[in-house]
Design goal:
By secondary structure, the protein is mainly α. The protein contains nine helices and no strands. It folds into two domains: about 60 residues, Arc Repressor Mutant, subunit A, CATH 1.10.10; about 140 residues, Tetracycline Repressor, domain 2, CATH 1.10.357.
């Protein structure tokens, strides 16, 4: 019985590892080349899995895209949260959003916002992918709002939410414009504006 459980456990772990490998491979391809320019066959070829194996884990390219978006977002939130919380309590933790973005921009793989890139490529009626992206963006606003509540004194709930949306817009503009201009000045300018807002 214990041998059967052990084999069953190994199979589950291996299945999970294969699925994660497909997600990571697709993530690199989607982020670098775009959703529409990345075909299923390229994901299969690059990941080294059989077509049947891929479809055993994902029913469609759309499902892989949702997994990609979740994978990118989960990694991003963990990293930016840890970075911001490593700063001194107060305004510096909010401004750290832009310091993190500058490090992200300096990374050789920086290719803008994965959400905006993806939403620009999908049909307008693709509710599944659009809903995932909107959820991620709303969660990011809530993250910023919590940063503000925890680090800015004498601010009420309504003010913190309005401020979070303003900081969010500065951040998103900084991502897009730094990618467009291939320069960090939009990030630095957004940080300066953020400092005035908070």
């Amino acid at each position: 019985m214990s041998v059967f459980i052990n084999v069953f456990y190994i199979c589950i772990v291996k299945r999970s590892e294969i699925k994660q490998h497909i997600i990571e491979t697709a993530s690199q391809l989607f982020y670098r080349n775009g959703y529409n320019l990345t075909g299923i066959n390229e994901i299969i070829s690059t990941s080294g899995v059989a077509k049947a194996t891929l479809y055993n884990h994902f029913k469609s390219k759309e499902d892989i895209c949702v997994a990609y978006l979740q994978h990118k977002n989960n990694s991003f939130i963990k990293q930016i949260e840890a970075f911001c919380l490593s700063k001194e309590l107060g305004k510096s933790r909010v401004l750290a959003l832009f310091e993190f973005l500058e490090l992200f921009f300096e990374d050789q793989d920086f290719n803008g916002c994965w959400c905006i890139k993806t939403v620009a490529e999908i049909p307008r009626d693709n509710e599944i992918i659009l809903t995932e992206i909107q959820t991620q963006k709303r969660d990011f606003i809530r993250f910023i709002e919590q940063l503000i509540i925890d680090n800015i004194e004498d601010i009420n709930v309504q003010e913190s939410f309005m401020m979070a949306k303003q900081v969010y817009l500065l951040y998103e503009a900084a991502v897009s414009e730094s990618h467009l201009h291939k320069d960090a000045w939009p990030i630095n300018s957004s940080k300066q504006l953020c400092n005035k807002i908070i």
